[in-house]
Design brief:
mainly beta; four-stranded mixed sheet; 111 residues; 8 strands
Length: 111
């Protein structure tokens, strides 16, 4: 089993450059041990970040979507199954549940 570092959380993001092309990036967020929920023991927490909306997605097994721009800014955490994503630069990544399955998607133009 891979060793984890509780002082950091890493997620993948898809961003759009000035030309409108999408690309993958990896972001690491620092965390510190905090007594955030006394009397519980300290656990690792990042700094607060803004959030205004959230939604849940569920897909039938075998669902396949057509290539499309992200309809809205999204932060996704895959709980089960697998998903394959492709950016306009041609990079394809496959994600399953676990520490490498969180990603942030900025609203994208084009396909």
């Amino acid at each position: 089993m891979p060793k984890t570092n509780p002082t950091q959380v890493t997620y993948h993001r898809i961003f759009v450059d000035a030309k409108g092309d999408s690309h993958f990036d990896t972001v690491t967020i620092e965390q510190s041990p905090v007594r955030a929920a006394p009397p519980a023991a300290p656990f690792y927490v990042s700094e607060d970040r803004p959030a205004s909306e959230y939604r849940f997605y569920s897909f039938e097994p075998g669902w396949i979507g057509e290539l499309h721009p992200a309809p809205t800014r999204q932060f996704l955490a895959l709980m089960s199954g697998a998903v394959e994503m492709e950016t306009t630069d041609g990079t394809v990544r496959r994600f399953g549940p676990g520490t490498s399955s969180c990603w942030k998607i900025r609203r994208a133009r084009g396909t």
